[in-house]
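Tutorial handout. Part one gives the primary structure; part two gives the three-dimensional structure as tokens.
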Amino acid sequence: MAEYDADVIVIGAGGLGAVVALQAAKAGKSVIMLEAGPEIPNWKVIQNWRSSPRKDNFVAPYGDYPWAPNSYTKGYLDKDIDTLRWPGTVRAVGGTSRHWTGITWRFLPEDFKLQSTHGVGRDWPIGYDDLEPFYTEAEYFIGVSGMDSDDQSGKHAGLAYPHRSKPYPMSPEAKPYSVQRLQMRLAPMGMRIIHAPCARASRNYDGRPACIGNNLCQQPECPIGAKFSGEMAVEKARAAGVKLRSEVVVDTLKKDGSGKITSLSYQTRDGVRQTLKAKTYVIAGHALETPKLLLMNELANRSGQLGRNLMVHPGFASFFEVDEPLWQGRGQYNHAIMVNWRSGDHRKESAAFTMSPWNVNKTADLTNILLQSKLIGSKLDAAIPEAVGRTVMMLSILEDLANPDNGVSLNPNWKDALGLPGLHFKYRVADYTKACLPNIFNDSANIAQAMGVKKAPMLEYFITHGHLMGTVMMGDDPSNSVVDRNLRCHDHENLFLVTTGVYPSSTAVNPTLTGYALAFRAGHYIAAEV
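Part two.
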């Protein structure tokens, strides 16, 4: 009988876990990947969404399973929050990066050195140059469309920033009409709108067709497969020889006297238990499930920081009624962004933020508002397209700082079908983040002036983006971090955590590409070591 069932076992068959598994398999290692959720094909997810009345719940089309609850499962998260919504997580093969928008920003060099540069927050134990080759590898793996000449910081006019070792794999998709008009009318106000790099194919790429603007990038998946999905990463891993077991819930990790992990065991959806052994273990759940598994097994918490320092990117949604029809909702879901406040000395005192013209159709919401005004018949029929055509949605992402008081902990008062606990989920928007609100309101006033807005915009705040970070933070010091710069647990030499939960800071842009870059970096490291 073999001593080990595999060289590497990856817990969590999402995009990041699949990248690590793929690198190990390509190096000739035996790899098993375990996933609590089921396999559900893209076509079924889209069918579920189209027939669902819950269009604001992007998790619902993937299913709600008694043995694998998600963040929208009733009772699973005992929420203590001061935001309107909370992040949605998927328990299915492919993971939460199946219902992402596909936006793929690199972090800026200064984002990795927030404390050193601005005297707030925490520095990463690695810098931009350490991650740049892996950003490039990730961009070519997932197929990113972007503009090589853009200054993505808003502070290096006329220069391409940050520096890149290779151009983007693809040029941007066709620009939606609404973005064209906003660019023209906001430019005189000093508000520059640039392309948001994304994992949508602008031409045939790696078996994916070019984007045709279905406008379903996040609701929940691309119907033609033009956008990269975590499911695609899993299929690449399987093609390389990785063995996938789905609908199995890992709940136990054993260690020896030195802290080395010696085995794991899981339950099937029916409660049947099995134990596996490997040389190296990787937990690649998101920033809720990763600390949960470690807390259940009293692992990796010498620092006392496990499950703490949660960051979620609070934000605003603003709805403007402008003086010309722009017909948002045609073309890509999110194509463009304003980065005027992404970088700069203001971060010493107030958070960075970005604002995007969110190219989404709000017909249902606007119709409900019009119905409340007692419009009926032909008047209602005329008012709906008028309101929809002239309504512009701007969505902001605000920088979070790591706060030990924000985080997750076990909730033994709630149990799933396998008898495993739920989670307490606590989050408060920081004063540092709130300090950027005058800048947001000033920019909103400029947008209103430029676009001929006569009514005060409707606001939703604070909303929470689906960007979970910080609960298993990386650092060089074992006394205040959970993993080191290579994502190895300080307390367990053969246990790695590959998740956006390792981020020491959040910046003001989507975190997914950085997660993929870290996964490639860790994957190469693990493959060379095992």
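Part three, for discussion. Residues 512-529 form the longest helix (18 residues). Residues 156-227+314-398+429-464 form a domain with the Cholesterol Oxidase; domain 2 fold (CATH 3.30.410).
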